[in-house]
Amino acid sequence: MCGITKRFGTVVANDCANFSLQRGEIHALVGENGAGKSTLMKILYGLYQPDEGEIYCRDEPVRINSPRTAIQLSIGMVQQHFTLIPALTALENIVLAKEPRRFKALLDTATAHRTITALAAQLGFPLDFDAKVESLPIGAQQYTEILKALYHGAAVLILDEPTAVLAPQEVDRLFECLRGLRAEGKSVILITHKLNEVMAVADTITVMRRGKSVASLPKVETDVVELAELMIGSNSSNTPKTQRRVNTPDQPMLHIEEVTLRARNGRAVLDGINLDVAAGEIVGIAGVEGNGQSELIEVLTGLRRSDSGAIALNGESLVSQSPAEIRRKRLVHLPADRHRHGISLNDRIDDNLILGSHSRLPFCQYGLLRQKVIYQFADEVIGKYEIRTGGLNLPIQTLSGGNQQKVVVARELESNPELIIAAHPTHGLDINAAQFVHQQLMDARNRSKAILLISADLEELLSLSDRIAVMYNGKIVGVLPPSRTDEAELGALMLGHSTFHASC
User: Fold this and answer.
1) What is the overall mean pLDDT for the chain?
2) Cα angle at 369 between 365 and 371, to 5 degrees?
């Protein structure tokens, strides 16, 4: 990719960017939020068209005007937000548009099943191919996306933040899979913010900053410190560290007792959950996606009703309360899926910054929005949270994923909550932005706010939490102080090993 430039209005997402990929290479693409990484890869996959620049594939100039063209060139992409069809099964999604046929008309399900099962076994992906995608946990959906790309003949596989929902052991398994693909001569482009993972698996690393590719170098010639400096353009070691105040937790602000929730088939997705969160405390929840964390959040925020059990906030029951009623009790939620539950993609940035408070003072009076107040608030928040935008009146979908996440974090934390439910709050954020969010959460804790932190990033949980609860198969299987555990033990519990052994 030579001299790629892409503009969205006044925002220059890619500014004469260059990128080269070799056969049989794992190539990491790193940079801050808004640096242009995802945009560059979406151009390579045909989702966007460049305003300037050229793309060469096997030394031949090509014009990739759609994902179909990219697939014909053996380029596949697993995006940060999956593109699967929820109502279809995993198998149907994988073979879609390349279905094996009998007599040129009938879908050959048996052949499809054998082919995909063999591919999944080769990669070590556990997956229920007959389950509908809407019922699969996010980790299984990710496996489905990867299998789909490979089934369709991808020799170049683009992965956008692929480890965000995986336990450490699953990350290791994914990396082994990527190394296996490399050994077969396939190439992998890995978009990530986790520099330790980059150093663990990548052969080559390209750093982007403000739309430009500022460096491309072999892993053996660099380290995490240099990469961080290249990403932000300065030494990041001077960033203030998060300070933890010594608090003595009082009575629980959030009390959860014997909460049970059953799926339609009768299986308990929440099985007798007991947990307290006190003011001035961060309680982390670790778990592989699909073990009840999402359902617990939905029950706490009023999106679903539990079948039994008690939930109280400051002594007041939250059972059978609507999401609006719960929010008025000053419980806020940073959702894991910002596109579905956090923002309105087609609406303006300033409108998104007041969602949930748009019908109350100071933003609304006598049923009318106070545009001047809204604009002033939005302008202050944009500056405080360092959100990169081409203008407050632009649709929020024009922002990078990381900057969209900053909008959600800013909106919820600026509403003066008492209890914060933060689900993967730094997913997709760069080093500085993630550290800024960590500081905001720690500041809230130090002001005696209660925080329930759900994260797949065990380093994040260990650094922020006062206690860590591990969920497996709808149950809390352990509650540990961070000082007495580590990532390996937490990962073992997350995978259902009730007793941790060093050999795990």
Assistant:
1) 89
2) 120
Q: Is 266 helix (H, G, I), strand (E, B) or coil?
A: coil
Which pTM value belongs to this model? 0.73
What's the rounded Cα separation, in Å, for the pair 419 and 453? 11
From 25-34, 86-95, 247-256, 339-348, the region with the lowest mean pLDDT: 247-256
Cβ atoms of 260 and 268 closer than 8 Å: yes
Strand partners, 57: 60
Give residue 239's pLDDT band: very low, low, confident or very high (50, 70, 90). Answer: very low
Phi, psi of 38 (to 5 degrees): -65, -40
Residue 469 in tokens? 């609860």
Phi-psi region at 45: left, alpha or beta (left = phi > 0; alpha = psi -120 to 50): alpha
pLDDT higher than threshold 50 for residue 502? no
pLDDT tens digits, 390-420: 889 899 998 888 889 899 999 999 999 999 9
Across 13-28, average pLDDT: 96
SS3 string of 118-161?
HHHHHHCCCCCCCCEHHHCCHHHHHHHHHHHHHHCCCCEEEEEC
Strands (E) located in 147-280: 156-160, 187-191, 204-209, 212-218, 252-262, 268-278
For 438, phi then psi, to 5°, come to -55, -45
Question: Domain 2-237 carries which CATH code?
Answer: 3.40.50.300
Model confidence at 237, pLDDT cuts 50, 70, 90, reads very low
Mean pLDDT of 139-148: 87
Please indicate whether the domains covering 2-237 and 252-330+417-499 agree at the CATH topology level: yes
Query: Following DSSP, what letter does each residue of 382-415 receive, concatenated?
Result: HHHTT---S-TTSBGGGS-HHHHHHHHHHHHHTT
Is-contact 14 49, C-beta < 8 A? no
The residues, ordered by sequence, that sit 6+ positions from 13 with a Cβ below 8 Å of its Cβ are 6, 7, 34, 36, 39, 211, 400
Mean pLDDT of the 110-128 span: 86
Beta bridge partners of 160: 191
Alpha helices (runs of H) in 305-399, residue ranges in sequence order? 323-328, 338-341, 349-352, 371-384
- The CATH number that domain 252-330+417-499 falls under is 3.40.50.300
Q: What is the mean pLDDT of residues 134-161?
A: 88
**Domain map of the chain by residue range?**
2-237, 252-330+417-499, 337-416
Joined tokens for residue 32: 């801050």
Whole-number Cα distances in Å, 302 to 135, 162, 278, 327, 330: 20, 30, 20, 9, 13
Question: Judging by beta carbons within 10 Å of its beta carbon (0-12, 13-18, 19+), is residue 447 exposed, middle or buried?
Answer: exposed
